[in-house]
Amino acid sequence: MGASAAYYKSALFGSLNVRAARENPSPNGYCEFPCNYPDGYYAQLTNSEKMAGGGFKDIGSHEALDCRVYNLCLSDAWLESQVKHCRDEYRAKGWDAARLGLEINSRTVLEKLRNAINAYEAQMQKNRRRQGMTKTEELKKLHALKEKILDEMAGAAAGLQSVQRRAPRDLMEWLKEVDKKIALLERQLGGGDLRTFGTDRYA
After folding, report:
1. Residue 135 Cα distances to 2, 131, 140, angstroms
2. Which of 2, 31, 162, 177 would suit a FRET pair with 89, their CA atoms being 20 to 30 Å apart?
3. Distance, C-alpha 45 to centroid of its chain
4. Beta carbons of 10 and 50 less than 8 angstroms apart
5. Chain centroid to CA 199: how far?
6. Positions of E strands within 51-202
7. 166 Cβ partners below 8 Å, 6+ apart?
8. pLDDT in tens, 74-119
9. Per-residue pLDDT reduced to its tens digit, 31-44
10. Rounded CA separation 101/48 (Å)
11. Are 191 and 142 a contacting pair, CB within 8 Å?
């Protein structure tokens, strides 16, 4: 595979001019960047100008541009290797050259990759839902345990005999540990709808 920095710079600068629209928020070639990139990054990304002969002349610090060009080149090299690997696989299954060229190309390999990513994301979403349900059940059990501890502390404060015969200090330490677990689970669940009582109820 031959690689030309001028080719990738031309492609990149063309992509930087692609505009998104409401009806097409991600048009082909559209570039997206993290919102916290500093202005200096974009200055580096565009610090090159095209010359009459078709090449480019760097006019300032351009590390961001170099990194982008390297990544574009490597992504094409990787895709080309995947096409070759896929063709070799199906050649071993008896496909002839005409069928390989027609049915296995960068577009079909990317489609295969996209399907694999979508399947992976669907499975991860399913796992997150299952995990969320598990954490919700665990959170409910912790709240029930907390109420039990608080009831036992109330009984101890009223002079009633505790079935477990735990000292008030032990009960308070246990309550603090349960509170920590509840707070952690509620953060993991995005705040949750279950109420957390403060440990100062019987402080």
Report:
1. 53, 6, 9
2. 2
3. 25
4. yes
5. 36
6. 56-58
7. 152, 156, 174
8. 999 999 999 999 999 999 999 999 999 999 999 888 888 888 888 9
9. 999 889 999 999 99
10. 37
11. no
